[in-house]
Amino acid sequence: MKSSASLIPSKDHTSTTIELTGNDRPGLLSELSAVLADMGCNVINAEIWTHNARAATVIHITDRSTGHAIEDPDRISTIKELLFNVMKGDSDFKTPSARMFVSTSRETHTGRRLHQMLLADRDFERHHDKCSMEPHVTVLDCSDRDYTVVTIRCLDRPKLLFDTVCCLTDMEYVVFHGTVITGRLEAYQEYYIRHVDGFPISSEAEQQRVMECLEAAIERRTAQGVELEVITEDRFGVLSEITRIIRENGLSIKRAEIRRNGGKAKDRFIVSDVMGNGVVDPKTMEMVQKEIGGLGEEEGCGVKVEGNNSSLLLSTKLSKEKHETRTSFSFGNLFKGRSFHNFNKLIKSCS
Length: 351
What we know:
It is a single chain. The protein folds into three domains: 1-123, Alpha-Beta Plaits, CATH 3.30.70; 136-219 and 325-348, Alpha-Beta Plaits; 223-320, Alpha-Beta Plaits (2-Layer Sandwich). The strands form two sheets. The chain has a nine-stranded antiparallel sheet, sandwiched between helices. A five-stranded antiparallel sheet has the order 5-6-8-7-14. Helix 3 packs across helix 4. The chain is an alpha+beta fold. The chain is 29% helix and 31% strand. A hairpin with a 6-residue loop joins strand 12 (302-306) and strand 13. The longest helix has 16 residues, at 73-88. It is globular and about 65 Å long.
């Protein structure tokens, strides 16, 4: 896998997009954000996913001095080279990939793009045995109807349908019929698919690859760890400071969503210890809260921790409302034949 860089003209010159894939390791996001701060780049939005020891991130940046996209090819080349070296680290296991271009309003949905990047990086190749909590996917022949039947059983969660259908679409399969059933905890999905060439899956190797890729697509959003929400004043370099505190306290970021809106930095992290354990010492989280909380004393700012068997809370931010829904419907009844094929076109329109 080789690095690449390209420029796409933008009418509004809003931001420059960076796409990176490489080996996951503790402190990765801290090092990336430090390099960007040193190069005068302001991070306005970012998202990082980790899965099977691999990491992928999409970062939107602007020039600190102008507030617009960075378009100078020489500067882009320098930034890309520095980020490439960070992603590579000391490991020669896989060559990282780095890509930078000017964003437009038509760019790919970030979640969709992260799926594509990790799929291309072959994160579906397992280096450990499956555990009982992982999704269960089967791929069977339906020769009498000339389809391949895919069934999925896993824990229900938001965006599950998006993730599975995007995976099938990115692998160039068309879904003709489907059924989705969600209960209080578990979800069941069934799809009748063919390849875009009109043929069902024809080999056991291909069946195995579809199972592995769907399992990976489901797992990417389910990082195990403690949720850390940070709301502070949006100022240059604040992401570098927050991630440095997380790293110096011996925590590893498994997922992150970075948002800037209305003068506020609203960041969400899923953190674990450096060994990947989802339960973190409460004293460590208290220290992280205290240090990050000292970055800003503005009204409406603070730090919140969830999912660590503790009730730690240092935030004036209202908690997000949580809704539980139960849905049961059949795509076979609603989107038969061509209509469901059009649904695949809607997914493709995100690319």
